[in-house]
Write a structure and sequence with these properties.
Two copies of one chain form a homodimer. Chain A is 41% helix and 18% strand. By secondary structure, chain A is an alpha/beta fold.
Chain lengths: 313, 313
């Protein structure tokens, strides 16, 4: 399998990407070829310095870079020789099986939506985050910012996508789906939640357990937690800042260590036709390692195939 | 001044209410009469047991109790001799200057809205929560659940109410107002946030500093943080659960201690014509103490008068 990696994306690239590749290749015995997209003059010396075996990687020169603050659509159009533009070209053309970048998030989203298209039947692709449960288990929350205004059917589809992710990637057999809401009983909540509840209840592709509240997010109540991207993004960033605060205050505890986003690496863009993983701008070696591992798992489990099946009707 | 206290509200009443009264009277030198509403057969022996000075309190017998799970509107209508119904009757009639209850939240809201009415010019009263900032300062977040679907003008009014609360109750001179959003720049966010931004920007009654994100909630970026009640309620309950988790895992740190809701006691209902404070169902003595202190401060600072002035146009 061929996994593509944007070597120019993120604040610490290409160095930290190379470190991640080294960590990955040291740990993995899967026959994978990593396609490394970026400026070969910067990449090649680092590959040598970090003793990356040449047979495991293939450098694809991309002379242009899309900056972190560039306008996504404009940058993608004007910089067709950028690592992100070339990455999506190779992914869409079937030369690569997954594409990872810690670069300009907007450009990754625009690139994915335009060059890959959503899976047939899916109205809106989504991004998710891992939520560390207080008892050691792992939940998934979605959407976390791609869709700030949603319709009930969007949330219903997120529930299916999140359930498949939870099952095949996180290994949870029959993931419990909870609707994030501000009351426990059916009929509670804002207009969106009220209208979404019956759709989830009638959806036989998921195991819906009802409403969950803010207090249930960190508890082992639901494995898949569904909301629109406004609330989800606020929760994601709050959780990230909580990790930063505990670090800064030197409050050390294994539970808070699990809030370190580097453990998870990046968020897959769920609902498009190929595996795309978007990393944090401040990704370091461990994040890149985890993103490559996630891409491998998405390919091995044929997660995308399962998603396509689910939306065939 | 006369502060009314529902002695039957909350899971541990009337005992914990009496404990709170004792804590309050031991600490305060302000000439306050506490009106104690509830079943005198239960209250009087406790007052004796806890040596509450008779001249500081006035027991008002209320033979009925509205249970925590009763339907608010129906219960208020059918139980006119309940502590909550009598409380609002005395508050509306000017016999009491504030009313506190840790009882049925819905009944408190319905009672307040029907017997007191909103301040003229205010479209929707609101409830808020205290947010402990990581540097020791104190922020206020609103709405936290009373208004799960909002219009831009609602949020604009919450910003004014929150600013007055922050200034007069929390002692912050020129409170910085932030719009909770999922991006930093103007124009970002969901439709509500996009439409609210210009209103806040043009509002010369507040000191608007722009958008804040989830990661800024616990940082000292804005003193008053405005959002609709869905997101706000999720944050409130998430913060409460965080305290519970740190307790349960024995992660002790002064910062997390500040997440203990008992420090704040209850949330004032902002935007109605008299001070009303709604406590947590599991309030104990310290919560009741803090709610009485808050009521006293709201009366002393004439917070309600200042709110009325702000909405005269």
């Amino acid at each position: 399998m061929n996994i593509g990696l944007d070597m120019m994306g993120g604040d610490f690239s290409p160095l930290e990407a190379v470190r991640g590749i080294q960590l990955y290749l040291n740990a993995s015995s899967t026959p994978v070829t990593l396609f490394l997209l970026g400026d070969e003059a910067q990449i090649n010396p680092l590959l040598k310095e970090y003793s990356i075996p040449p047979q495991s990687v293939k450098v694809i020169h991309a002379p242009q870079v899309i900056g972190m603050n560039e306008h996504p659509t404009r940058a993608l159009k004007e910089k067709q020789q950028s690592s992100i533009a070339i990455g999506f070209h190779l992914l869409a053309g079937g030369k690569m099986d997954a594409f990872i970048s810690a670069g300009n998030t907007g450009a990754m989203l625009v690139g994915a939506l335009y060059s890959l298209k959503p899976i047939e039947g899916i109205q809106r692709p989504t991004i998710s985050t891992i939520i560390p449960k207080e008892n050691g288990k792992t939940g998934v929350l979605l959407d976390v910012g791609l869709n700030s205004d949603c319709k009930p059917e969007n949330l219903n589809q997120f529930a299916i996508l999140g359930s498949l992710y939870s099952k095949h990637i996180l290994g949870i057999d029959q993931p419990r789906v909870g609707l994030l809401n501000i009351g426990e009983e059916e009929g509670k909540g804002n207009l969106l939640a009220q209208a979404t509840y019956p759709l989830l209840k009638e959806n036989n592709q998921i195991h819906f357990i009802g409403n969950i509240e803010g207090r249930d997010l960190l508890l082992d109540k639901a494995d898949v937690m569904v909301c629109e991207g406004f609330t989800g993004n606020v929760i994601l960033k709050l959780a990230e800042s909580l990790f930063g605060i505990t670090q800064q205050k030197q409050i050390h505890h294994p539970y808070f260590d699990r809030f370190d986003f580097e453990n998870y690496g990046g968020t897959p863009l769920l609902g498009v036709t190929k595996p795309v993983i978007i990393g944090h701008g401040i990704s370091r070696g461990r994040s890149f390692l985890n993103m490559i591992t996630l891409a491998q798992k998405m390919i091995e489990t044929d997660l995308l195939g399962k998603m396509k099946e689910s939306f065939l009707s």
